[in-house]
Amino acid sequence: MLTHTFAFSGFAVPDIEAAHAFYRDVLGLAVEEAAMGQLSIDLPGGGWVLVYPKPDHVPATYTVLNLEVDDIDRGVDELEAAGVALLRYEGMGQDDRGIARGIASGFGPDIAWFTDPAGNILSVLQNPPVD
């Protein structure tokens, strides 16, 4: 078994300055410049993500970062007010706002997806209440 001392995640963007502004100003996360032109983004609840420049970046086809909120509707309102467009996925049962309502159906969280300026897929989600 691997013996480790720390863990973190990372993903690429083609434009570090655009990522810095988006994650700080739109998503309200603490963003710091790191070595070699990278960014360190502090995540609520602990942990962090390394964002690194990659000029030939191709966005992943999956969600790279999930942001949990207490109220999905308010979270979507805040994203839309900041000019963020929600993604629509065929077969995901999203409502008119682009929210997949998993809590009411008993099938997971309420979740809405969007992209950062690099096209990386992110989500805002509200988990079901804990019994």
TrEMBL record:
Coiled coil segments of this chain: none
Gene3D superfamilies, per database record: 2,3-Dihydroxybiphenyl 1,2-Dioxygenase, domain 1 (3.10.180.10)
Domain VOC: from-to ranges: 5-127
Domain of life: Bacteria
Pfam family, one: Glyoxalase
Alphabetized PROSITE patterns for the sequence: VOC
InterPro entries to which the protein is assigned, alphabetical: Glyas_Bleomycin-R_OHBP_Dase (IPR029068), Glyas_Fos-R_dOase_dom (IPR004360), VOC_core (IPR037523)
Name of protein: VOC family protein
Annotated organism of origin: Microcella daejeonensis
